[in-house]
Amino acid sequence: MIKIINSLKKEIENFSDSSTEKIEAFRLKYISKKSVINDLFLQFKDMSSEDKRNVGQPLNKLKTLAKDKLIQLSQLNHKNKNSSHPDKDLFLPPQNDTIGSVHPLRIVRNKIIKIFRDIGFSIEDGPEIENDWYNFTALNFPKNHPAREMQDTFFISKNPDKVLRTHTSNVQIRLMEKESPPMRVIIPGRVYRNETVSSKSHCFFHQVEGLYIDKKVSFKNLKETLFYFAKEMFGEDTKVRFRPSYFPFTEPSAEMDISWKNGWLEILGSGLVDPNVLKNCKIDPEEYSGFAFGMGIERIAMIKYGIDDLRLFSENDKRFLNQFRGAQ
Q1: Distances in whole angstroms, Cα of residue 39 to Cα of each of 14, 51, 60, 248, 283
Q2: How far is 210 from 123, CA to CA, in rounded Å?
Q3: Under 8 Å CB-to-CB from 256, ≥6 apart: which residues?
Q4: Which of these, 69, 82, 126, 252, could form a disulfide with 171 (CB 3.0-4.6 Å)?
């Protein structure tokens, strides 16, 4: 194999055509999953330990050489394409007036993720087009149950069993079906509701939901976790309160408010995972318990930055977005 590696090395080093067609041919031959180098790695798996010691390093160097060559050829290709504009160097860093900024929803999303990651929560993601089981039924929304009317749903007309997810709880069900407790996750993502677009509502928005399943998880654990979140997000002096509420998938359920501008402002819903939800996911509610919570990222961002119109987040107005340069 060493002879083949050395031969391919010379081919790559001598390759100089930077036309678009030849670069793609180079990529297919040396970089793609069906490349000659990938074939060598497949053969490498079946080699003896002694042969692997002799071949491993040269093979890895060959792969690196091919990747570096592809970058070099691509840069040369771009340079040639823009040679008609010698006064404009596209490889220079952007000027100050063209530097973008992180979107405020992304800033808040990242902050929420960091807060929960610091206390041991992992991050999960899942599909935005979902079937009825994961979006409703497994979450204790029986057919024709009045609770379904709480969610103004977009249904896929050609397949009424498919919906645009109304919450990221669908990922909780998928996770509980495929993994065994304990689990501690948060699930950020975009969700959809058939609502009128206004300063206070939109047909899509962003959520972060959390799930903690283990033995002897209590409402006390839920309160301590969310109180920690509130202090980290809004400051050490933040005061919170919990109010009884109703959600089909948690029992008991509560909404959490924070003290804000001489009043109370609701920021999230929460509760202990309903035993029926655990049973639907083949988790024994006699052995395990858990809590769940969910919050709107837009709501947190509006509170944190004093924004009074939800539509600003999706209008791409540079005057609005430029205000968040350097924001934390």
Answers
A1: 21, 16, 13, 53, 44
A2: 9
A3: 226, 230, 240, 241, 242, 243, 266, 267, 268, 269, 270, 293
A4: 126
Distances (CA, A) of 318 to 199, 301, 314, 325, 328: 18, 17, 11, 11, 18
Token representation of residue 269 = 């819903």
Quick one: which of 45, 42, 40 has its CA closest to 59? 40
Q: Are 244 and 270 in contact (CB under 8 A)?
A: no
- Of the candidates 199, 207, 294, the one whose C-alpha atom is nearest the C-alpha of residue 250 is 294
Query: How many angstroms separate the first and last alpha carbons of the chain?
Result: 53
Residue type, 35: S
Taking CA atoms, 182 is separated from 49, 120, 122, 290, in Å, by 38, 12, 12, 9
Tokens of 7: 């031969």
Q: What single letter denotes the amino acid at residue 209?
A: E
Per the listing, tokens 């079946």 go with 46
